[in-house]
Automatic annotation (TrEMBL):
The protein's name in its UniProt record: Peptidase
Domain Butirosin biosynthesis protein H N-terminal residues, every copy: 11-142
Source species, domain of life: Bacteria
InterPro entries, A to Z: BtrH_N, DUF4872
Domain DUF4872 stretches: 154-327
Coiled-coil region(s): none
Amino acid sequence: MTAFNHVQTAHCETGVISNMFRHYGLTISEPMAFGIGAGIFFGHLPFVKVNGVPGTTYRIWPGAIFSRVCKRLGVKMESRKFSSPDKAMQALDEMIAKGIPVGMQSSVYYLPYFPPSYRFHFNAHNLVVYGKNGGDYLVSDPIMETVTTIDRENLIQARFAKGFPEPKGKMYYPLEVPGKVDLKEPIKAGIKQACYYMLKIPVPMFGVKGIRFLAKRVQKYPEKEGDRRAGLYLGNIIRMQEEIGTGGAGFRFMYAAFLMEAGALLQNEALKSIGKDLTAVGDLWRNFAFEAGRVCKARAANNISYKELGNMLLHIADEEEKIFRRLSNVKLA
């Protein structure tokens, strides 16, 4: 088995997919993995609290991209969870001894190679362990610039962190990876699923409806929640967008890159055009985060109001709806 080739990526789940598949001879870019896995999404969950405040997500739930990509590309994976750390570490050591890189779910909080300011309780971070050096494990964490190491105790804590979702020592590795695949049908399936989730899912908190749902709540934050809690709620929207994982704008940029790559592969100019326009929507998300951050920090006397922030989100929702309606109508022969 060849040495594991680490490439830094934008997002952990798609990064592990790209790096791990390439190790087995199947080259697929991170944006392509994101698009085939229909990773683009939006959801605002006022009843699901993250550190005591409502949760907002800009991508599909953790693990969904990986399972969809594997299914659509014909990759057979083995996934295991464990009842005890000893069994989990024994299983990991056995796979490493065979020269098999192992993907795993972990908590960011217990990864010592992360800067302290980035170590928070998020239990769905993906990384690859590909070997050992003495008592330390060799780690390819796709969002890090280079490979790194982690000691046994911290790795155990990261693999068995409490809280939702509990990793329970989850590890996974390919059993069968095709050397070459035709991406046409997987691309079509990924686009169709993404359009459904953004436009037609019958839940008002998801997709473009979810962006409008959040916009209206943001406009009422000060009167309903008070200034302090309004600032906390708004701050968490920004944090989920700009600091946790790839973030809202980052996922829009990645999906735009997927559409342009798919457009070139399928010789479809409409896909490339939509990808270019989606990049502009990513810029709108970044502008929202900038203005919302100024409101949270009260750094200027002329900050815009919560009502204006909500209007920015309503505009974003309108633009994303236009994008995905156009995309849903593209003929992919």
